[in-house]
Each structure stands twice: as C-alpha cells, then as structure tokens.
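Work Package 3 (structural annotation) set out to generate three-dimensional models for the target panel prioritized at the project kickoff. During this period the team completed the workflow that converts sequence records into discrete structure tokens, so that structures can be stored uniformly alongside our sequence database. As a representative example, we reproduce one entry of 373 residues exactly as it appears in the project archive.
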Amino acid sequence: MADISIKEVRTRRELRQFIKFPNRLFKDVPTYIPPLMMDEKGLLTSKNPAMDHCDFKMFLAYRDNQIVGRVAAIINNSCNQHWSKKCVRFGWFDFIEDFDVFSALISKVEEFGKAHGMDEIEGPLGFTDMDKECWMIDNFDQRQNLSTLYNPEYYIRFIQRLGFEIKCRWQQYRIKIEQTVPEKILRVNELIKDKYQLKVLDFKKRKEVFNYGKKFFHTLNSSFKDLFDFVPLTEKEIDVYINEYFPFINLDFAKFVVDKDDNLVAFGLGIPSMNEAYQKANGRLFPFGWFHLLRALRKYDEVDLLLTGVHPDWQKKGVHSLFYTEMTQNIINHGVKYAYTNPQIIGFDAVKIWSKYNGEELMKRAVFGKSLL
C-alpha cells in the first residue's frame, strides 16, 4: 500500500471532489443514481443539524495523484448513548476494485474511532436513519431507489475479507400494481375505521400537510424506535426535514391516518420515481437539471414508497391497510405499473406486510460490523 496516500478533506475543492467521486466511478453503471451536489453539501457541512451530536471526518484516497476512493468516519454520540455502545460508523464509502485502497480507507475510520475511545465499527450508515445506509448483498443489477446506496459486488467481498460480519439485514420489494383494489379489502378497511374511529386524511393543499409536519416526525420517532441503531430525530432535525422535504411531497401519495382526537397514528409517503431525472441531471440542478426533475414529477409510471410507519400503540390492528389502500388507489389512477419499497428490516412487521401485497423480493441489503478491540 506504499503507493496509496490518504488525505483528510479540508477545502471546498476537496469536498467537491469527495462528493463527485462516485459519479466518475459509476458513470457507466445504468442503475447508479447521482445525488444532487447541493443535497450532499447540506449533509456534509455544518448545515446538517446532526452535527450537533456527531463527530466526523472525511478522507480521500490517492494513487498517482488520482482519487481512487473516499470514506466518511462518523461517531453518532446520541446513538452510542441511546444504545449503550461505543461505535464508529463508516459512510459515503466508495472505492475502485482494489483491496489495498479499501483497506487503507477503512483503517482510517478505525483509527478515528479508536482515537475517540470507540470499540466497534459499523456501516455503511449515515448521520441519521434519514440518510442512505446499507449495501446490497445480492441482485446487484436491480433497479435502485433514489434514497438507497448503490454498490458493486466487490464491496461485499472486500468487507468480508477483513472479517466484518453482517449486523442487520434489509429486504426491498417491487410491488405490481393491480388494476383495482379488491372489494374485500375496502370492506375490511371500513370496519377498521369504524371500530377505532380512524380516518385517512385526503390533502388538497400543501399547507395542510405542513400542519401535520411535527406530528408526522413524532410518529415516525415512535414507529421506528426499535429499529437497528435508530435514534429519535431532534426537534432541530425535524424542523430542517419539514422545510427541506415537505414542499416537494406529492399530495396523492401522502396518506396520514388520524384518530378521533386528530393524533397521527400511521403514515404512508411516496413520490414519483425520479431515477431517470436524477441521472440526466448528473448531480446538478442548473442549467437543465431542474427541467428533468419537474418533468419527472408530471410523467411517470413508477412510484417509490419512501416512508411507512404505524405508531406502536396501533400496530397489529390492520391500520397499515388504510393508508396503503388509499395510496394504491391513487397510484392506479395515475397509471403506475410498479411501486418500490425502501429497505425493510428483515424480521419486522413491515416485511410481512409487503409480502401480502404482491410484493416481489427485489434485493437484500446489510450493514456490516466488527470489534476494534
């Protein structure tokens, strides 16, 4: 590894190189989706509210003055305290097919973790569960979601070669949209709504969604509290996510379930597929990236199901069927052929739910870890 040098990212130029590296690495991969530069800068600078409780550094790997890899080392202090652990995370981890490059970068993360008293390492993970996490471990050529990581097969070979083991597994589904919602499901849904005095909100104006912004993320915190390494979002993080993401919510695919007191008990949130638009934008909104994105919001035949959840007090009561049925009906009305789920942790109810709705297994994903002792 004598010809490989690792350098910490310190300048704006190096940050741009860090963000753009995978676009060059995967430029010939048809399923890779370049993120927007502005979104990545927001995550990797002080604008990210997660920096209030995270320590982190970014590194670039060089060979012959050419960038051949990148990685971010993250210590989420809130997560470590919440789960009683001492763990450093790796994220934004991309590299050429060279084990020495991979090993040099992961060593920097381990070094950073040990210097801060950490005794284990995990990844790929972001700052919070709202960031991209987990690598594919099968079906590497399948369609990606805008909110998921792309990785080639050699990533898995290399990480296992260093003794990392799988800490948690996820499953993604592709759901074929039928032309009608079965009458039986509609009847059962009406019984559920009557029994528990529930209703599904049908938003007509965007400001109506904003009124439920806080409730949405508080319910999300409760719904996800038992998931792997999840830490409740802070009020500051919630405010940022509301302002950044709620303006772009598609009202047809935002279905919130409330009780008689207007408490949000379940939610389903989807968006038209933006994959092709992001590929055409190639990381930039200007000069023409915005045009591709706006066009994708108007014409599409696939939908990504970004977030679904049910408050713990309302789980195992069939409430998930309420928001999913309403979303499905709107998806049918738009002529959509397929809906794609985000990764669902294997063993939790979400996986059981999607398997009931013509869910075809798309790919499995995993987070890896090992001891630093």
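The CA atoms of residues 52 and 129 lie 16 Å apart.
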